[in-house]
Design goal:
By secondary structure, the protein is an alpha+beta fold. It has 3 domains: 45-154, PAS domain (Beta-Lactamase, 2-Layer Sandwich), CATH 3.30.450; 179-281, 2-Layer Sandwich (Beta-Lactamase); 295-483, Hypothetical protein af1432, CATH 1.10.3210.10. The protein has helices at 3-51, 70-75, 98-111, 156-178, 197-204, 208-211, 225-238, 283-317, 324-338, 343-354, 365-368, 376-382, 385-393, 402-407, 429-444, 455-464, 472-483, and strands at residues 55-59, 65-68, 113-122, 128-139, 145-154, 182-187, 192-195, 240-249, 255-266, 272-281. The termini are far apart. The protein binds fe (ii) ion. Residues 356-357, 385, 409-410 line the site of fe (ii) ion (FE2).
């Protein structure tokens, strides 16, 4: 070969070699970039797995574990990934769910993605726990599945919370259904959301679903609709109401009187959801109350008649007492009211005063109606009238100690009265009131044997003896009543 052509050949070869080296260098560079990219992706995947709240497992198509995140190890109660790697995922599924798990593997490979399936798994110590699983197939370049990726979310807390809510709901329903009262749970429009068994039995019917959604007002008689609306409005504004009466219609058409108690119903965020209305059937109670009232009125009428007869009985015998007991009773009642006594005590004062001289029926008319001074003996006989009155009345079962009060109406604060010379507050307050009213009336009005002395003399008598013979408070009130004109005797 000529020398020139040999040189030219070497140069060409050199050029080729340089080009090859350049290509190789370029490929190496690309490879480096590719490796870097790969590492970066792996790092991202690893970090994603670590950051995920779910456990991550990768298996081959048969379910053999090839990768698992650290969270998975903890979730199953193991210490190291090596205890799980290489084992088949189905081993960790609770026996009753294993067939479903195998089916899920196949479906994931076939369909590419299966979501929100729930399985019971087993921890290392054998305890069962519920897990939500999302599965995806990992595919090669030709879209053929080569592995399965699963994320596992522990549902233990959710399931426990659901169970607690369910139990709390059951307790709530149990409480409501155990009540003998009818209980309605209403929304803000007054429509029924739920009703107790008692409410269903009495008002609703056999099928609760037919009653839910109905208006509560459908069970209230039309005349009481406004009252029922007011009850719901009041619950909304002041949170609860008590003892409101309304008439309702039972499913059999009967009308009942109900006593409604209600309170507001709020959601966890404080939003008003509606109200709870508890209806107690008080029809029978109202009927009994009315009967008792009627019976009381009848008894009262009889008692008033007897008291009146007793009052007239003395007046028939003792002209001195005509109108006296009645006027004394009117003043005594006014004093008792002004003193702030309870109405029952006021009634007691009034009745005792009306018949306070009843014992005089045992004193002879000659003595009682004698014009002129009484002898000591005659006066002693008259002084027996409180005890005689006590004897007459003690067997009557008054709701108040009428006989004792009458026995003490001539007792005086300092012990100078009769029959026992009782002092101070050993004398019934009612007797202290009657004694003042008795003296004021006696001095104010005329008697068959003398003219009237008038109110001023009467008041002077009690005021001069205030705290001595007569109760100071009673005297003060009596003076104020008469001087101010708040009380006037009706003649
Ligand atoms: Fe008397």
């Amino acid at each position: 070969m000529p020398k020139k052509s040999k040189t030219a050949g070497l140069a060409a070869e050199n050029k080729n070699l340089k080009a090859k080296v350049a290509r190789l260098e370029k490929n190496e560079q690309r490879l480096k970039y590719a490796l870097l990219e790969l590492r970066r992706n792996e790092e991202i995947n690893r970090k994603l797995t670590m950051a995920s709240r779910d456990a991550v497992i990768i298996t081959d198509l048969d379910g053999n574990i090839t990768y698992l995140s650290e969270r998975t190890v903890g979730l199953f109660g193991y210490k190291a990934p090596s205890e799980l790697l290489g084992r088949n995922g189905v081993e960790f599924v609770s026996p009753e769910d294993r067939m479903r798990a195998l089916d899920s593997f196949k479906r994931t490979a076939r369909e590419g993605f299966v979501s929100n399936e729930e399985f019971f798994f087993l921890k290392s110590d054998g305890r069962r726990f519920c897990v939500q699983v999302n599965s995806a197939a990992i595919k090669d370049r030709k879209e053929r599945p080569v592995a399965l990726l699963m994320t596992l979310s522990d549902l233990t807390k959710t399931k426990n919370a659901e169970r607690e809510i369910r139990e709390s709901e059951e307790t709530f329903r149990g409480l409501i259904d155990a009540s003998p009262d009818a209980i309605f749970i209403l929304n803000t429009d007054g429509r029924i959301i739920y009703l107790s068994e008692q409410a269903l039995a009495v008002y609703g019917g056999e099928d609760i679903s037919r009653v839910v959604g109905k208006s509560f007002y459908d069970f209230v008689i039309p005349d009481d609709r406004n009252s029922a609306e007011q009850v719901l409005a009041d619950i909304a504004s002041v949170s609860s109401v008590h003892g409101r009466e309304m008439r309702l219609i039972r499913r059999n058409g009967d009308r009942i009187t109900g006593e409604a108690n209600g309170s507001i119903l709020k959601a966890a965020d404080g939003r008003v959801k509606g109200s709870i209305i508890v209806i107690r059937d008080i029809t029978e109670k109202k009927k009994i109350d009315q009967e008792l009232k009627n019976s009381y009125m009848a008894v009262k009428k009889v008692m008033d008649g007897i008291i009146n007869a007793m009052e007239k009985l003395v007046e028939k015998k003792d002209l001195y007492t005509v109108g006296h007991q009645h006027r004394t009773a009117e003043l005594a009642r006014a004093i008792a009211v002004k003193m702030g006594l309870a109405s029952e005590q006021v009634t007691c004062v009034y009745i005792a005063a009306l018949i306070h001289d009843i014992g005089k029926i045992f004193v002879s008319g000659e003595i009682l109606n004698k014009v002129g001074d009484l002898t000591h003996e005659e006066y002693d006989i008259i002084k027996k009238h409180p005890e005689a009155g006590f004897e007459v009345l003690k067997t009557i079962d008054f709701p108040w100690p009428i006989a004792d009060i009458i026995l003490q109406h001539h007792e005086r604060l300092d012990g100078s009265g009769y029959p026992y010379g009782l002092k101070g507050d050993r004398i019934y307050l009612e007797s202290r009131i009657i004694s003042v009213a008795d003296v004021v009336e006696a001095i104010t009005f005329a008697r068959p044997y003398r003219p009237a002395f008038g109110i001023d003399k009467a008041l002077a008598e009690i005021e001069n003896n205030s705290g001595k013979l007569f109760d100071a408070e009673v005297v003060e009130i009596t003076s104020n009543l008469l001087r101010s004109g708040q009380f006037k005797f009706v003649v």
